[in-house]
Design a protein that fits this description.
Length: 442
């Protein structure tokens, strides 16, 4: 496989997120985010770990960008921590926060690397959470004001923006299951969070487009290829309901199709939060859609699971190879997912903005020979190429992620990086997968 097969305009990149790498959570005027609060709560994160230092990217960003450069990666995706810019989420702006992202963007450009900021990768300012956070409709205004500040301060040097990262995960895990920040649970939190996230995504898109008409504006979604446990009708329809929840609920309203609530009647509960005019305000014609995919899910009917009557058949129970996240090793899933989203005629362009896998890497003789990750990425790319050759508008691929980092509620044990991090010393070591990517991108 040769990178030229993907075409010369194909975007190659690597993705990161502020909270997972930056550390310095309270430095230079940064306000607390919901993840600072959540990680301080007992029992919420594996081993009681927190992201106070993480990869120390706040201080080491130049070295890490040197690595991006030596790995021949031309596009760097990062996220902006809202509470660095606005410590209380709204109101007074923290100049030192702006300075950091200005330095970061400039450091990318100096190295010939294109910066791809994401405005929201799950770290809502705690001060806004105290006012109800994503469940409070005012969040659309707060997010719009924050978006506008970012557009005005960074827009002169940024050609590609992403409004949000995986709204299904921060609403589902954070507002229904309570296993991610802010730890809210139940439909009374989930539904308003979903609706306000959708309105914010579209509003963010409009604000960026208006202020930066020449920039490419996108937003990203978590997606997994879903298969029914059996071909029996009840499993097939359970798989369809899971697909609606995991893969369609957040994207279809943005594409102008409304919420897919016909087959899962409980979802009609979202309508309670809708005001006149919302249907229209939920949509925005994004230049690209970021698809983020890691595995496939197998779904079976379950009488006992409330609302959805569907449950995941855990990969552990299916006797399949597993990643550290206990996700099935299934890089082939990227192909049906690209095919699926390519069917939406409203989607003009797809970038795979995250894809990768966590494995228990070991340092031996100073090196990390992560053949499983290397082969995962290589297979993903072969499958992507197949979809592309069949006419799917997939125009880019970003590996998750540059360095091992803080994997949310899982802490530091799942390692996803192309580059190994020794969290005691902050030493970086390029893994075999990183070297493979470097040579591939040469
Ligand atoms: C995504 C998320 C990333 C990263 C990755 C691996 O859902 O956007 O922040 O954690 O999964 O689990």
């Amino acid at each position: 496989m040769d990178k030229d097969l993907f075409g010369k305009d194909f975007k190659w990149g690597v993705s990161t997120a502020a909270f997972q790498i930056e550390g310095s959570c309270f430095s230079d005027g940064k306000g607390a985010s919901i993840w600072d609060t959540f990680t301080a709560r007992k029992g919420k994160v594996h081993g009681g770990q927190h992201a106070g230092l993480a990869c120390d990217f706040y201080n080491l960003y130049e070295k890490d960008l040197d690595l991006v450069k030596t790995l021949n990666i031309p596009n760097f995706r990062f996220s902006i921590a809202w509470s660095r810019i606005l410590p209380f989420g709204k109101g007074s702006v923290n100049q030192k926060g702006l300075d950091f992202y200005n330095r970061l963007i400039d450091a990318c450009l100096e190295r010939g690397i294109d910066p791809w900021p994401t405005l929201y990768h799950w770290d809502l300012p705690q001060a806004l959470e105290d006012l109800g956070g994503w469940t409070n409709r005012d969040v659309v205004e707060w997010f719009s004001a924050y978006t506008d500040i970012c557009a005005r301060n960074f827009g002169d040097r940024v050609g590609h923006w992403m409004v949000m990262n995986e709204p299904m995960v921060f609403t589902g895990a954070g507002h229904f299951l309570g296993v991610h920040a802010p730890g809210r649970t139940g439909l009374k939190n989930f539904f308003p969070a979903v609706h306000h996230a959708v309105l914010s995504m579209a509003a963010g898109g409009r604000i960026l487009k208006e202020s930066q008409p020449h920039a490419e504006i996108g937003t990203t979604f978590s997606c997994s290829h879903i298969e029914p446990y059996s071909q029996r009708s009840w499993d097939v329809s359970a798989a369809n309901r899971a697909d609606i929840l995991f893969n369609r609920l957040l994207i279809e309203p943005v594409l102008g199709m409304g919420y897919p609530d016909k087959e899962v009647s409980v979802m009609k509960g979202i309508r309670k939060y809708m005001l006149p005019g919302d249907e229209e305000n939920m949509t925005f014609d994004f230049d690209f859609i970021g698809i983020q995919t890691y595995t496939r899910e197998v779904i079976r009917y379950s009488f006992l699971t409330p609302y959805l009557h569907a449950k995941l058949v855990k990969a552990e129970k299916r006797k399949v190879p597993l990643t550290t996240m206990k996700w099935e090793v299934y890089p082939e899933g990227i192909y049906p997912i690209i095919k699926k989203y390519s069917q939406y005629k409203q989607i003009r362009k797809i970038y795979i903005t995250e894809n990768g896998a966590a494995f228990p890497d070991v340092v031996m003789g100073g090196a990390v020979d992560d053949q499983e990750r290397l082969s995962f990425i290589r297979t993903s790319l072969q499958e992507l190429l197949k979809a592309r050759k069949e006419g799917c508008p997939v125009e880019g691929y970003f590996v998750w992620t540059l360095t091992d980092n803080f994997e949310w509620a899982e802490g530091y044990h799942p390692r996803f990086g192309l580059v190994h991090v020794d969290f005691e010393t902050q030493e970086r070591r390029v893994k075999s997968s990183g070297k493979w990517y470097r040579d591939f991108l040469k």
